[in-house]
Amino acid sequence: xxxxxxxxxxxxxxxxxxxxxxxxxxxxxxxxxxxxxxxxxxxxxxxxxxxxxxxxxxxxxxxxxxxxxxxxxxxxxxxxxxxxxxxxxxxxxxxxxxxxxxxxxxxxxxxxxxxxxxxxxxxxxxxxxxxxxxxxxxxxxxxxxxxxxxxxxxxxxxxxxxxxxxxxxxxxxxxxxxxxxxxxxxxxxxxxxxxxxxxxxxxxxxxxxxxxxxxxxxxxxxxxxxxxxxxxxxxxxxxxxxxxxxxxxxxxxxxxxxxxxxxxxxxxxxxx
Length: 272
Ligand code: NAI
Prior knowledge:
CATH class: Alpha Beta
Distance between the termini: 50 Å
Bound molecules: 1,4-dihydronicotinamide adenine dinucleotide
């Protein structure tokens, strides 16, 4: 432990259960001395185990549907009250596609579901930032991070409409990050994480194969949820003050690997 976040206050979205990337992040932020409010959609609070995490990290939980501006306004105001001041870090760790969940193919979407998924997975990031921005809720040199996946840049057929949502999310990080940087000296980045066995991750069709393939392809193997939590801690810390508007690949080198010996070997074996 390095006390990297001592004295810093934040909001962490998306801890559903102990597999969630946000759950691991909350644990690591706590270990590094940061204080925070935990939040999730009301329905997720009923289903998940967030109270155990709150107890462990000495945090309060405020329900908020990230698509509701009213909920977000309440969340930001209450968080500042609870934490006794402005916010230094925010983690947006939210994603959901109803088309994926209901098994609709990318070429056969129900557009009401597409719209809902976009609202939850991407536009919610704009709503979170706009609420923080308008309420002057962020401290100077604060850091806002959202989690994304490489399907925003390259085709992964079963990632479905989440690929489009992630592309939109990453664009919002750049566009809003410009204004947050210029006007409030706050940085905004996305972390593009390896496939990770969580509730959201496992919803992707053929996830196990996907996970094993990425692991064999990446020179360092897949980054775990805990690795992602550590990277996010670094992004919240003062050690990364000049990093903003970036999509940061956190994937053991997968994104820059054309093919690996392991994958080629398995492929050739399959041909025999
Ligand atoms: P998770 O299922 O544990 O977390 C997703 C969270 O989104 C849940 O806590 C859920 O309650 C929350 N959520 C859904 N609808 C919401 C709403 N309307 N308002 C507020 N919260 C809502 O899964 P995971 O994997 O930890 O997901 C976190 C982020 O990481 C997501 O953005 C996901 O796309 C991203 N990611 C995940 C990868 C994976 O393979 N698991 C890979 C790369 C990125």
